[in-house]
Specification:
- The complex is a heterodimer of chains A (317) and B (582).
- Chain A is mostly helical.
- Chain A has one domain.
- Chain A is 70% helix and 0% strand.
- Chain A contains twelve helices and no strands.
- The longest helix of chain A has 35 residues.
- Chain B is α+β, with helices and mostly antiparallel strands and 582 residues long.
- Chain B has two domains: 151 residues, Beta Polymerase, domain 2 (2-Layer Sandwich); 343 residues, Cytochrome-c3 Hydrogenase, chain B, CATH 1.10.645.
- In chain B, 39% of the residues lie in helices and 15% in strands.
- In chain B, strands 1-2-5-4-3 form a five-stranded mixed β-sheet. In chain B, strands 8-9-10 form a three-stranded antiparallel β-sheet. Chain B has a three-stranded antiparallel β-sheet with strand order 13-14-15.
- In chain B, β11 and β12 form a beta hairpin.
- The longest helix of chain B has 29 residues.
- The radius of gyration of chain B is 24 Å and the shape is globular.
- The relative contact order of chain B is 0.13.
- Classes of the chains: A mainly alpha (317), B alpha+beta (582).
Chain lengths: 317, 582
């Protein structure tokens, strides 16, 4: 009985934690960008502008719920929900600290890939259902981008799986007791982060929205809370990417002195800040350059990494 | 003047039996009148056959001569068409004019000689109703397609109040919207190729990447640009028509708003042209103040370009840095002039006020601050691998193509042509300053950017020289036509009082004549061609804005590239829609 209550508590905390994390990230990103761009950022609502996400939420909830008359209604409404649901589902297998996880699946990593593939539907369907050329191009770019980068993301992690001997994320963290995989699997880390950024379509890989080219890409026609869902989905995806990188490469909860959960949060937070810094500094690649980067550089690197890691693992036995 | 005579002699030798009637103008540009039937042959000769040819069609415009009292003897017809050619080899211009008769005059097109004549001829058709036989697409360019009348004709009203109340019933709105529908066939485009349908993407007039109300219709095969059509005119305010309505003096604020990022850079050619017409000599101090302000505005304009250029290729931060730095310039401008973006600070014969006390401290502060920022931008943007990947080899053209299309300014210098009007034809005392003309070799987006960044450094050098060598003396000429006239003696003698009173109430009466002045603006060659009929306002104000021919090149330099590239190309043309549409 106590176990069930504990688990329910974890579920509620993870759900509440990640969603409020998305809100906090909106504030954090805007403040950090402002810091790096010689301006103030939101600093009016509450101390340091901390309640800005609340104000944003109120605004976005009270906006007119507008569906363009030319859009494919059902799909148009469903698309934003898909991204939030799939990203939230992915958090189910993330181990935050020893014993603190929603589910310890022995196919955890595969589950993640599955969810991330489903998440791609959100962008594609949004672009398609909007019945707008800019959205359509954004959706097509998203389709090509997420599908190809999933390949590299998956391949990059095979080395980690080989070293840990398991698809379970808990087992992967525990396998890093000695040395973190960011050392032994450095090429994999680079490929994973690049592919992860491309999956979350953040700068420098934000071609699906590319505001200077495609207005807002796949979500051009969205407003109000439906737009808010994409927004929340994006921030959730950043959190997920950082949490995954922490788990897979930076030893998850492992660390001296501080409690495990604190270590996990610190590492994830640092990665999130790094991702925001990337956005502040890099320009956008062109779509074909993104594709050739993936297929001509990341794919060989990931494959080579698998071969070398596999060879070492075999010889080690 | 010897050159003037010699080119006319050349023409007479080449075309015996044709009358070449020279006209004297205040700007000493050789001006010949040619019978309308011979225009194309003469222009072909000047472009292709004459020794040291006139390769650039600098401007093409018209004048409605019907109300002109002080008409040149050669202007026998109702309209004159003016071709302004420029020779880089000679560093000299020639103006070819022809006279046309009747209410629906027409002339042979020269689009087969110069591709850039396309938009110019459309503009003349739109504004004056002068047809060009053989032009493949002679339709309105600045006015809406449904417009009635030709605005720059003297019988067309200049104010909305002369036209009756505006109404837009539903039927009319439907007609207007239908008129804007894009029909690929009208532009000689196909809707599909052998194996795929093309997508027509309407980029603008409301689009975050077009820097204003520009509409570009892209013909796409996948993401590849098959062709592009630029549709302009959404920012047209009738600036040239307003020039005929305002007094010489009160038109100065309108010039500020032509290239709205250039500020006083726009005042420069306008006041210089008036001073040429009136024969006003500008005191040294005023000249140097003008140069200093122009160079500050050049940096400000390039900073806006720099920030938006980085933003257009997806880099988020530089635009904030650039606007912060620009703010420092605008604060200096504010301290000097009281206004920021549009100070309208130049006056006929000088500038509006003397520099305030402590001006040197402000300028010094900026000169100390800016170079390290530029070095930082170099690292952040110009040396960034992704920026290079996005701009090197994109939207490139050769020097010959640039001259053919009337490209001036950084766009021309990026192809290796060392051509800067501040050096080649110094005005306002530029010959006394030391600065280099930055050039690059490939004429692509990256090289155009390199040239602009280097120009900011050169402008800083010029500002520094202004700071160190600011002459003393009056900031405005004591010529009676200088505006507003010098006031310190108005209470002592009646002559000065009368001059001042008339100048302020009516405005100065500028002697009849014609003059064009070309100045190097931040975007390219900005020229004002003014015709005075001996009145208090201009008879014809022609603004040759650099952005107009530059933007016309867009389809040519964007074919074959990707959708994302067109934003880089647009950004590197560095146009302002107000400058294109006027």
């Amino acid at each position: 009985m106590r176990e069930i209550v504990f688990h329910l508590l974890v579920v509620v905390c993870v759900l509440g934690g990640t969603l409020s994390m998305a809100g906090a990230l909106i504030w954090l990103e805007r403040r950090l960008l402002a810091l790096w761009q010689d301006r103030y950022g939101p600093n009016r609502v509450g101390p340091f502008g901390l309640f800005q996400p609340v104000a944003d939420a109120i605004k976005i909830f009270t906006k007119e719920d507008w569906i363009p008359p030319f859009a494919d209604r059902a799909v148009f409404v469903a698309a934003p929900a898909v991204i939030v649901v799939t990203v939230l589902m992915s958090f189910a297998v993330v181990p935050f600290a020893p014993g603190v996880w929603v589910a310890d699946l022995n196919v955890g990593l595969l589950f993640l890939f599955g969810m991330s593939s489903l998440g791609a539907y959100s962008l594609i369907l949004a672009g398609w259902a909007s019945n707008n050329k800019y959205s359509l191009i954004g959706g097509l770019r998203a389709a090509a981008q997420t599908i190809s980068y999933e390949v590299f993301m998956g391949l990059s992690l095979m080395g980690v799986v080989m070293l840990a001997g398991s698809f379970s994320l808990r087992a992967i963290v525990e396998a890093q007791q000695g040395v973190w995989f960011c050392v032994t699997q450095f090429p994999a880390l680079v490929v994973f982060l690049i592919a992860g950024l491309a999956e979350t379509h953040r700068l420098p890989f934000d071609m699906p929205e590319a505001e200077s080219e495609l207005v807002a890409g796949f979500h051009s026609e969205y407003s109000g809370m439906k737009f808010g869902m994409f927004f929340v989905g994006e921030y959730l995806a950043i959190t997920l990417l950082s949490a995954l990188a922490t788990v897979l490469f930076f030893g998850g909860w492992l660390g001296p002195v501080l409690p495990p959960l604190v270590w996990f949060v610190l590492k994830t937070g640092a990665l999130i800040c790094g991702i925001i810094l990337l956005r502040a500094s890099l320009p956008r690649l062109r779509f074909d350059q993104l594709m050739s980067l993936g297929w001509k550089i990341l794919l060989p690197v990931a494959l080579l990494n698998i071969v070398v890691t596999g060879a070492i693992a075999l010889l080690g036995k | 003047m010897t050159q003037n005579a010699s080119i006319v002699e050349d023409l007479r030798l080449r075309f015996p039996g044709t009358s070449f009637d020279p006209q004297s103008t205040r700007d000493d540009v050789p001006t010949v009148w040619v019978p309308s039937g011979k225009v194309r042959d003469v222009l072909r000769y000047l472009k292709n056959e004459v020794l040291r040819p006139y390769k650039m069609l600098f401007d093409l415009t018209a004048v409605d001569e019907r109300c002109r009292a002080d008409r040149p003897a050669q202007a026998t017809g109702d309209f004159s068409v003016v071709y302004h050619l420029l020779s880089l080899d000679r560093n000299s211009d020639i103006r070819v004019k022809t006279s046309l008769d009747g209410d629906a005059p027409s002339l042979a097109t020269i689009t087969n000689l110069w591709p850039c004549a396309d938009w110019y001829e459309r503009e003349v058709w739109d504004m004056f109703g002068i047809g060009f036989e053989g032009h493949s697409n002679l339709r309105r360019i600045l006015m809406p397609p449904t417009w009635e009348g030709h605005p720059l004709r003297k019988d067309h009203p200049a104010r909305a109040t002369e036209m009756g109340p505006f109404q837009l019933p539903d039927e009319k709105q439907a007609v207007e919207e239908e008129a804007l529908r894009f029909r690929p066939e009208e532009w000689g485009m196909k809707r599909e190729s052998e194996n795929s349908d093309f997508m027509f993407l309407n980029l603008g007039p409301q689009h975050p990447g077009t820097h204003g109300v520009l509409r570009v219709v892209l013909q796409l095969d996948g993401e590849r640009i098959v062709d592009a059509v630029a549709d302009i005119g959404y920012h047209h305010r009738g600036a040239e028509k307003m020039g005929e309505r305002q007094t010489w003096h009160t038109y100065i604020p309108y010039t500020d708003r032509i290239d709205y990022l250039g500020g006083v850079l726009n005042n420069m050619p306008y006041v210089l042209a008036i001073e040429k017409l009136a024969g006003i000599a500008v005191p040294d101090r005023a000249q140097v103040i003008r140069v200093m302000m122009c160079e500050l505005f050049r940096i400000a304009s390039h900073l806006v370009w720099f920030g938006t250029f980085a933003q257009d290729i997806g880099q988020m931060s530089p635009v904030f840095f650039a606007f912060n730095d620009r703010e420092r310039i605008l604060e200096i401008v504010q301290a000097f002039c009281g206004a920021r973006m549009h100070p309208s600070w130049f006056r006929i014969g000088g500038v509006a006020q003397d520099l305030p006390n402590g001006w040197d401290r402000l300028v010094r502060g900026f000169l100390d601050y800016m170079p390290s920022r530029l070095a930082e931008y170099d690292k952040m943007v110009m040396q960034n691998a992704i920026v290079k990947a996005r701009t090197v080899g994109i939207g490139d053209y050769t020097a010959d193509e640039a001259i053919e299309w009337g490209v001036t300014g950084p766009g021309l210098r990026a192809c290796g042509v060392e051509w800067d009007f501040r050096k080649k034809r110094p005005y306002s005392g530029y010959e006394r300053f030391q600065f280099d003309i930055p050039t690059a070799q490939h004429g692509d987006c990256y090289d155009r950017s390199v040239v602009r960044v280097e120009e900011m450094r050169q402008s800083l050098r010029i500002v520094e020289q202004c700071l160190k060598n600011m002459p003393s003396g009056p900031y405005k000429s004591d010529h009676p036509l200088a505006m507003p006239p010098v006031k310190d003696r108005t209470m002592h003698d009646i002559e000065t009082l009368i001059t001042h009173f008339l100048g302020v109430t009516w405005g100065p009466v500028i002697p009849a004549g014609e003059a064009a002045v070309i100045a190097e603006a931040s975007k390219g060659a900005n020229a004002y061609y003014l015709i005075s009929d001996g009145g208090t306002n201009s008879y014809r104000t022609r603004i040759r804005a650099p952005s107009f021919p530059h933007l016309q090149m867009l389809p040519k330099i964007s074919r074959g590239f990707m959708t994302a590239d067109i934003l880089a190309i647009l950004a590197c043309i560095d146009f302002v829609l107000a400058d294109v549409d006027r």
